[in-house]
Amino acid sequence: MPELAIKSTRTITPTGLQAALVLLADGRIADVMPIDTVVDCPVLDVQDLALLPGVIDPHVHINEPGRTEWEGFNTATRAALAGGLTTLVDMPLNSAPVTTSVANLEQKLAATRGQLHTNCGFWGGIVPGNAGEVEGLIARGVLGFKAFLTHSGIDDFPNATEQDLRQVMPILARHGLPLLVHCELTTDDNTWKLSDKRSYQNYLASRPKSWEDEAVALMIRLCEEYNCPTHIVHLSSSNSIAPIAAAKANGLPLTVETGQHYLFFSAEDIQDGQTQFKCAPPIRERANNDQLWDALQAGIIDFVATDHSPAPPDLKQLESGDFTTAWGGIASLQLALPVLWTAAQPRGATLSDLARWLSENPAKLIGQAHCKGKIAKGYDADLVVLNANQSFRVTADLIHHKHNVSPYIGQELRGVVEHTFLKGKSVYQRPTFAQLHQGEIITR
């Protein structure tokens, strides 16, 4: 017996936009019916507001335990609900300890208690010398593993070498779990540091496309050699699109994400000293980013994830504007959906595209494609009601992250999240959190 029905003339289903009545029972979608179906349960009529599957962000730095002053489970998952996100996957850094052992994962799991307002899964980390922890982390339920090929930004998560990856990729291939890789190989001279530290162009030049392209080429070779599911995180170099497309055409188990910030901003927009834009790889030129858009719309890039990487304001060096010492990370979790929709709509993208890039394809990476990411019978009732036509200006007081440092402040965005449902329960109804503490830990 359904407990609630949601009626929308713009329901985004796997077959496209349709007028539908979505029946919810026991935390799942009991059925998707014609909109005029008569049912014996309460009906929420959202009229022409869009009903989409909840957003899944598999690239989030929650930073707890150890650096909870940077973010934390409570603030991250609250902010997520306000943005229509229903499932997050936490990166193995920048928490302390990092998630590179079973013992460290247990500390992280303990830190979630009483603090999860969305669903949350975890990536394990690959660092030199921890190959012996991989099987244990898999048994404990991590969704896959993350490695850096360059310095991660914190010394307690050192970058993996090719030999480190060769040790773990056969294990992951056997279990069918993905290896996520930050693809930059530090190969060029860094004399740029001797020049203007406030210059964004200097920072951009300090992390050239060649770093990324060489790393992507390495991962394609290793993916082919071991047939290990391999995922390129936050692709920013358009030069790597063609080799990625060729690898996919050859049937390699390779997937790719890019970040909202690479699709929304361009290097030409960033002034010297604006360290709120610093991330790695850097935001590149408009012509480069237009090619990222083409690759996303062609399906070469599979989806979009925030790489939400917040830090306290002093670490972003907002006063000095020093790109050499500022923390590299963009806080954007709550704004994932409207940022992408604002940039996508002028390019002819549809709400169905949005659901594929933010829900359906991320669900595949995290092993949840059977139950999340779609509005379809039997799927989890994680849903978002979106006023796709309404705009709003981002102000600091709207942001629920622990710190309101973000390059999106002041931007006019399109798409207002009106209502978020988790397992069929109303958890956020703008501007109020209706029910908190409804999140669950997601395991493979």
TrEMBL record:
Reported cofactor(s): Zn(2+)
PROSITE patterns: DIHYDROOROTASE_1 (PS00482)
A GO BP annotation: allantoin catabolic process
GO annotations of cellular component type: cytoplasm
Gene3D superfamilies assigned: Metal-dependent hydrolases
UniProt pathway annotation: Nitrogen metabolism; (S)-allantoin degradation; allantoate from (S)-allantoin: step 1/1
Keywords: Hydrolase, Metal-binding, Zinc
Broad EC category: hydrolase
Domain of life: Bacteria
E.C. code: 3.5.2.5
Keyword Magnesium assigned: no
GO molecular function ontology, one term from the record: zinc ion binding
Segments forming domain Amidohydrolase-related: 51-427
Complex formation: Homotetramer.
Family assignment from sequence similarity: Belongs to the metallo-dependent hydrolases superfamily. DHOase family. Class I DHOase subfamily.
Biological function: Catalyzes the reversible cyclization of carbamoyl aspartate to dihydroorotate.
Protein name: allantoinase
Native organism: Hymenobacter crusticola
Lineage of origin: Bacteria, Pseudomonadati, Bacteroidota, Cytophagia, Cytophagales
